[in-house]
Amino acid sequence: MSVNQTTAPDDVAAEPKTPKGDRTDMVGKALGLLVLLGDEPRGASAAEISRRADLPFSTTYRLLGSLTRDGFVDYEPDGRRYHLGLRIFQLGQRVSNHHGFAGTALPVLRRVTEQTGEATILSVRDGHHHLTVNKVDGPQAFRVTSDPGHLGALHATAVGKALVAFAEDAEREALLEELALDPLTEHTITDRGAFRAEIEKVRRQGYAVMDEENENGMRAVAVPLLNPQGHAFASLATAVPVFRLSMEALLAHVPLLQDAAAELAARLPQR
Q1: pTM of this structure
Q2: Where is this region: Disordered (predicted)?
């Protein structure tokens, strides 16, 4: 439920003055707050958001009030925390439908999952991250946690490596130079030379793998969805827990993923 506030929370001792330059581009500031909230699944207080956004508390509080009023943000009075609202979900669903990620892609993902018995994930690149746009869970009890809307690391995931490897030449080179190769597990590739070699390997073999590099206990294989110029506009993956499928058994699904990727590439708008 959306709740409008009339008084500021008491978790801020002092409020900085607002420079004149901060009075402009309020739309950009509001959108920035939404992006920050998207990285906080448990929500955040106005003070926390203000600090992360590097905005005066009064500006943050006023913008959050407007976003709450219009349904883009929800306010939880008990915990004094803000969360993304249902209006964001509605808009996201419209974007997904517009790009075919729901209506067009979902039946293909379901078919792949029926044949593999495992989760199938469709992702696109969003700057220096991959964005999960659709996922179908397998029938097993163990779920993959990369739900639609999840932003993940390009360097530590199969879908991310496929997107980097088959990006346009200039974009690929920029990513190879600029990506922060943060260690997410003890298996994450953090050496830039090793990552470059990994991407070249992906380009040669036509698929990418992740073996506990992003999350302990999980492995995945991904293939690119290619446009007519041979560049990836999305990637498709099968993800499994390591105890259920060996890497060799997982790689046996590559032809199935490649067929599904070719079908999706022919049917999805490539924007």
Answers
A1: 0.69
A2: 1-25
